[in-house]
Specification:
single chain; alpha/beta; TIM Barrel; 8-stranded parallel beta barrel; two-stranded antiparallel ribbon; 11 helices; 14 strands; binds 1,4-dihydronicotinamide adenine dinucleotide; binds 7-hydroxy-6-methylfuro[3,4-c]pyridin-1(3H)-one
Length: 346
């Protein structure tokens, strides 16, 4: 498993990094036992230092808390782990029965979360994250989902204010970097055009794309942006490369349920059918195809995968080093399962 230099962070990272939404009960309450096994599997399947992606939002701090607890239980040396914490939400006491943020997404939470994007707010996210991590610390930090923060603007003046908040948050993160507290500053978002906007205004070391460059979706404009990032020496993590599980048969596509009722949904289901048929014909595991595709564009150093079950981690990690035959990729292009003009693979 070949490690690569990660943007301007100075870190050498493995081709697979571990996402941790499931430790925060995204879409389902995962038993604590399974979470313990998931963290242990990370260290069994990838040579240290292992790279973990988390966020204060994941389970309103639950994901960070469990990471800290399990690393300590496994006696992991802090030098053997890199934790990337996406900042924007702080843990708050739970008032009432249900958390108020992202209803329907998180299950079995003990806390609520509040969005805090500003100079002071982002520092609160950072410090609280390190408290939740206990003996460990975030070595990388980013602003989480600036796309959603901007999309919530009610008018142009509000949007301008929100950009100001984001820039102030980055001013604070830049200080953490120049003080030597963190190794790099980045961004994590599902709308890659918002990442491009941030890159135009802020000096980033790395970015995390989510739901954006996948076997299902790979617009040429994004490929051009990735090339630009690569030339500028900005690191790239590719996340949610199964489009939140949809490509593998899950019911969520980019974190919304596909019911099959709209024309768009029918197209998605039709795509999946054609993808699965091709995988069967060439005897390629769908997850392996998604992972190879997600790493095929130069400039991407790693994919972020998350798992609610400890059982598929070994398989997923093994798949990252595998390669499907070129004939499989040309077939996907011929069948328009992937864009025939995609310049890599096959
Ligand atoms: N805004 C941001 O910055 C975002 C960051 N992320 C990061 O990326 C990570 C991965 O995203 P996910 O939400 O997990 O989306 P994903 O596209 O990786 O899909 C995950 C789903 O696929 C399943 N799965 C994983 N490996 C499998 C296998 N080998 N066989 C069958 N099923 C398998 C998982 O159990 C889960 O249901 C997150 O944990 C997070 O760290 C994800 C989304 C947004
Ligand atoms: C809004 C939202 N939905 C799902 C996910 C994230 C997110 O920010 C994330 O970072 O990982 C999965």
């Amino acid at each position: 498993m070949q490690r690569q230099l990660f943007g301007k962070t100075g870190l050498r990272i493995p081709p697979v990094v571990f996402g941790s939404t499931s430790l925060g009960n995204l879409f389902a309450e995962v038993p604590d036992e399974a979470k313990q096994q998931v963290v242990a599997e990370w260290f069994r399947r990838v040579e240290a230092p292992v790279f973990i992606d988390s966020a204060g939002k994941y389970g309103a701090g639950m994901s960070l808390e469990i990471i800290g607890r399990e690393l300590a239980r496994l006696n992991i040396d802090p030098a053997d782990v890199v934790i990337s914490n996406k900042l924007a939400w702080t843990r708050q006491p739970l008032v009432g029965d249900e958390p108020t943020f992202e209803p329907g997404a998180w299950f079995g939470l003990t806390h609520d979360a509040r969005q805090e994007i500003s100079y002071e707010g982002i520092l609160r996210c950072y410090h609280q994250g390190n408290e939740l991590l206990g003996d460990y610390q975030a070595g990388l930090v980013s602003v989480h989902d600036p796309d959603e923060y901007l999309a919530a603007a009610v008018d142009p003046a509000d949007r301008k204010q929100r950009w100001h908040d984001i820039e102030e948050a980055y001013r604070a993160l830049g200080e953490l970097r120049s003080d030597g507290k963190v190794l790099g500053v980045g961004v994590g978002a599902k709308d890659w055009t918002s990442i491009r906007h941030v890159c135009d205004r802020v000096d980033l070391d790395w970015v995390m794309l989510a739901n954006s460059l996948t076997i299902m979706k790979h617009p040429p404009e994004l490929l051009a942006f990735i090339e630009q990032l690569d030339e500028a020496g900005v690191g790239i993590l590719n996340a949610a490369v199964f489009n939140a599980g949809f490509a593998l048969g899950g019911k969520f596509y980019d974190y919304r349920v596909v019911t099959g009722e709209s024309a768009e949904d029918r197209e998605l289901l039709d795509w999946r059918q054609r993808f699965q048929t091709a995988c069967q014909r060439f005897d390629v595991a769908p997850a392996a195809a998604c992972l190879e595709f997600a790493r095929s564009v130069p400039g991407i150093q790693a994919v972020a995968i998350s798992s609610s079950s400890p059982h598929n981690i070994a398989r997923t990690v093994a798949a990252v080093d595998g390669a499907a035959p070129p004939s499989f990729w040309s077939h996907l292009k011929e069948m328009h399962v992937i864009d025939p003009s995609f310049p890599f693979l096959g």
